[in-house]
Amino acid sequence: MIKFFVLATCLLMITAKADDRPNIVFILADDVSPDMYGFYGNKEAKTPNIDKIAQEGVMFKTAWSSAICGPSRALIMTGAYATTTGAYYNGFFKEGANGKGFFERHPSFAKLMQNNGYRTAVAGKWHVGPAELPDNPIAGFDEYCLWESVRELAKLPGKPKHTGLWEDESTTSRFWGPCIIKNHHQLPTKKSDFGPDIFTSFICDFIEKSVKENKPFLAYYPMVGPHGARAGYPTCPIYGEVGDLGAKTNKGEESDRRFRALNDYVDILLGRIEQKVEDLGIADNTIFIFASDNGTAVTAKSRGVERGGHVIFTLKGPGIKQRGGTDEIMDFSDILPTFVDLAGGSLPAGIKVDGKSLKPFLSGESNSHREWIYGCTATSQLLRTRSHLIEVVNPVLDVPNGRFYYCGENRQGKGYVRAEKNPEHQEAQKMMRKTLQKFSALQKDDAWFQTKKGKQWLKTCSSPRAREKHLHNHSDYQHYDETL
């Protein structure tokens, strides 16, 4: 009887400990730079809920990811840079050895959280290159609700057809009348159904079920917006006509208005999730993270400059003692180890993770996080410290040394000073270039570029027009010396 009592007491203690671990709601906006939001100084933005996260928690003024969707999501989910995973660009994911899948070689944060007793779900946009879809147990999600293609519909029992709207002749809509697969089944939609509303409701339902099961949860919400539809920016429930996917708004003032409205609607959706958490009485034990996958399309996305991969990362919740904007730097390789640390777990032996847990900094145990952050987009490498930047290190495009700057406390490219030959900054430059040597830069003779797919990719991305775009900022953001 005594042994049974001791065992029961221990089990209760373990359960209580598990229940005390924080829930995590991770919201990832699609294709938007920090300067589109109020907390980053945009006075036209109507984003009070997101601004409140930055005010009540901490906002990283300098956070980096890859500058394009697929590699950014791969980095987020694996905690490993492209030099580790082979995820360099959309359509440029190097295949792994021994026939193993992507998440077999590089476990996702969802799988690791699942292994630590968390319920996990994903909603919105997947887009992790060749990685296993969330209906594969290896991916680590208990539930999912995703915008999908007709190719994925064809894999379902009965091969259902999409009867909603289309962004072009082959792309299903992600906004009005979307094509959605929810937990292995097609979710029928009509023209008046707005995809982001559906995904948000799914996240809220998942949270409620997790609370009823008394289990900590990780809700990962990589949104489909404010990324536009193929033809332009769509309308949304707070602006424009139902069902308009933007066929006539590729550019101009109307496109700008729609983009702003979509950003504002992202804030409304986040508010709905926050309200659900409040109603369930778990706000004191839930961490909210708001981030973006890469910079805004056209002006930042896919470019090898700092703005391309300069992203939002702001969070609030239990155990986070840092407040306001911080000059500490982070990149998205830090997300996976941070989640595992928050779950009270440890990284499995044998897996390569390039990031570092943010928990010591967020909790106030440490006043600093890391000395440098790394970025990789396509064939370009970037490195940053709090005060210096190296960007577009790209032997493939004949820029082997990139460009070196002294930034001081400046951000967003303003006030950066070219410093390759400045004696005052040689020590910093030497250290940074030595650090870059840890990450082998792609070369023209790389084996992947000898494949049929690789040859075509290299031909397209090395054209004069593509080269010029990738190695420079958009003309509206050329605030510093970009000569090569």
UniProtKB/TrEMBL annotation:
Keyword Calcium: yes
Annotated signal sequence range: 1-18
Record domain Sulfatase N-terminal: where: 22-344
InterPro entries: Alkaline_phosphatase_core_sf, Sulfatase, Sulfatase_CS, Sulfatase_N
SUPFAM superfamilies per UniProt: Alkaline phosphatase-like
Keywords from the named record: Calcium, Hydrolase, Metal-binding, Signal
Family per record: Belongs to the sulfatase family.
Full protein name: Sulfatase-like hydrolase/transferase
Native species: Lentisphaera profundi
